[in-house]
Amino acid sequence: MSPQTAQDCAERLLILAPRLMQTLRVEMRANRPPELTVPQFRTLAFYEAHAGAALSDAAEHLGLGAPSASKVVESLVARGLLVRGVSASDRRRVVIALTNAGEQVLVSSRSEATEVFARRFKRLSELELSVLFAVLGTLQSVMGSDGPEMGGPEVGGSGVRGVAADSPASGLPETSDREKGAARR
Q: Residue 131 and residue 126: Cα distance in Å, rounded?
């Protein structure tokens, strides 16, 4: 057997990544009523790691256009899972962060998503699990981590993650209807 090249690994990853996401989607849908859709789950996870980030940052991360990302964010704001506010450093900029309710839903959904893969991994031997864990660690270090442990940037140093939408401690003052309209453009 010949040694694998970086090209071989990249090709296999490109084949596997969509299958992983499809497995997650199917399993999340099977557990109706779902707490979150996969795009909503990914959006909450993004704002957990990047409290105070702009909508354009989320859209880029999610691979969505601004209008689609705006719809996802707006649905989460309407449910009280995210809060919109004005940047402490630039009043023209609208920033978004998790609420306490959003953090709770994310923790619950992440637990369900983890269980989806854990059930499949139970078929593996201890050696296979050890190898998989090491490979995933290597992949994470090569690709970078987007998890909360990385301490995503907080716009204006507001410390907004995990606070209630109506909390003045959020550092995100409510946006006016005029500002919300401008942010959507």
A: 9
